[in-house]
Amino acid sequence: MSAKKDRYRGRMIAFEGIDGTGKSTQIHLLKRWLDLQGVKVFLCEWEASELVKNTTSKVRNRELLTPNTFALLHATDFADRYDRQVLPLLRAGYIVLWDRFYYAAFARDVVRGCPPAWVRGLYGFAEHADLTFFFKAPLETCLSRIRTDRLDPKYFEAGMDLRLSTDSRESFRLFQERLFEQYLWMSTEYGFRVVDAAQPIEAQQQLVRRIVEDVVHPSEFTFKRP
Question: Can you identify the CATH homologous superfamily of domain 3-221?
Answer without folding.
Answer: P-loop containing nucleotide triphosphate hydrolases (3.40.50.300)
